[in-house]
Amino acid sequence: MLGLSPNQIQKLLNQYLVADYEQPINGEIMKAVASRVTDPKTDVLLLPAVDMDDSGPYEIAEPRVITALETYTPSWLQTPRLKRLAEIVSAQAVMQQQLDAGGAMAKEAYEGGEDGEGGDMGDWSQLNGQNGLHQHHSNEQEAGI
């Protein structure tokens, strides 16, 4: 069992600052705590123990694949770097999805698709060229440097 003494509870309540939108601590609660502080029989307030190892099926979220990133930021929120970062990550996710889809189609075509006949490496390089993954020559190579 975890325990706080009534004196500790009274100190916490006295140090608590109520925010503008909160209701102040009820005076009856403060009186009840004060009476427990002065009562010699109640030296510890016992709280029910919570087993942290057995958190139940609803508290631990299962991992999941994130398929899309929410990039919305309110217009009143002045965070240009955060907005730019969200745009970059979103564009990267879209490119990755396109590459994954293009790679799956290329692999299917290379393995023969529905007719079951596989292609040779020439076919594979043509498919990669069609997907925009072919090599580009630099200006130095074209100039012969």
Domains, number = 2
Number of strands: 2
The order of strands across the largest sheet is 1-2
- Low-pLDDT stretches are 118-143
Distance between the termini: 78 Å
Q: What amount of the residues lies in strands? A: under 5%
Helical segment count: 5
Query: Could you tell me the mean pLDDT?
Result: 69
Class by SSE composition: mainly alpha
CA radius of gyration is: 33 Å
Helix content: 40-55%
Largest sheet: 2 strands, antiparallel
* H-E string: EHHEHHH
Shape: elongated
Biased composition (Acidic residues): 111-120
Domain Dilute: 1-39
Region (Disordered): 109-145
Protein name: Dilute domain-containing protein
List the helices and strands and how they pair.
Layout: E1 2-4, H1 6-15, H2 27-38, E2 45-47, H3 80-110, H4 121-130, H5 139-143
Antiparallel strand pairs: 1-2
Helix pairs in contact: 1-2, 3-4
Concise summary:
This protein has helices at residues 6-15, 27-38, 80-110, 121-130, 139-143; strands at residues 2-4, 45-47.
Question: Explain this structure to me?
Answer:
This protein has 145 residues and is mainly α. It folds into 2 domains: 2-47, no CATH class; 80-143. The protein has helices spanning 6-15, 27-38, 80-110, 121-130, 139-143, and strands at residues 2-4, 45-47. The protein has a two-stranded antiparallel sheet with strand order 1-2. Helix 1 packs antiparallel against helix 2 (27-38) and helix 3 (80-110) runs antiparallel to helix 4 (121-130). The termini are far apart. Residues 118-143 have low confidence and may be disordered. Residues 109-145 are annotated as: Disordered. It comes from Aureobasidium mustum. This is Dilute domain-containing protein.
